[in-house]
Design brief:
- By secondary structure, this protein is α/β, with parallel strands linked by helices.
- It has one domain: Rossmann fold (3-Layer(aba) Sandwich), CATH 3.40.50.
- Helices cover about 40% and strands about 15% of the residues.
- The chain has a 4-stranded parallel beta sheet, with helices on both faces.
- The longest helix is centred in the C-terminal third of the chain and has 13 residues, at about 105-120.
């Protein structure tokens, strides 16, 4: 299914780029780009998991990875993610969600999230776009 990558399966750990962007910091544009370019990114060795969100955000996935409940129809996101990682030879994974900005503030969520990333044999690399406080207040 994800066989387009031509990389060795000897890679001990894959890098997992975790894009966290607070609202109004361009996150949706990045998610849309990732979604629209999944096939090309896959050819270049970057697995971008499918998203149930039409804009490409991985909200259900990160919520589940944080150990939080999601509606019944969204409960397969983490299992599909784990399966996709197992089936690919890509060396990097990219996930993006504004939800992480709020979830990772909670110590239990953060511990659960990074524990599950570790279980999947992924090395997390956080990509975060902060907003200065006056801009954040103005947008709200």
């Amino acid at each position: 299914m994800f066989g387009a990558c031509d990389y060795s399966s000897q890679v001990a750990k894959r890098v997992c780029y975790i894009h966290i962007g607070p609202h109004k910091s361009g996150t949706m544009s990045i998610q849309w780009f990732l979604k629209e370019n999944r096939a090309e990114l896959l050819k270049d060795g970057y697995l971008v998991p499918e998203s149930e969100d039409f804009r490409g955000g991985h909200y259900q996935l990160v919520t589940q990875l944080c150990g939080r409940a999601v509606p019944q129809h969204q409960r397969e996101a983490a299992a599909r993610f784990a399966s996709a990682i197992k089936d690919t030879k890509c060396v990097a994974v990219v996930i993006s969600s504004e939800t992480l900005d709020d979830l990772l503030v909670n110590e239990d969520c953060a511990r659960e999230f990074f524990g599950r990333i570790e279980e999947l044999n992924l090395e997390p690399k956080l990509v975060f776009f902060p907003r200065n406080q006056s801009q954040l207040l103005n947008c709200r």
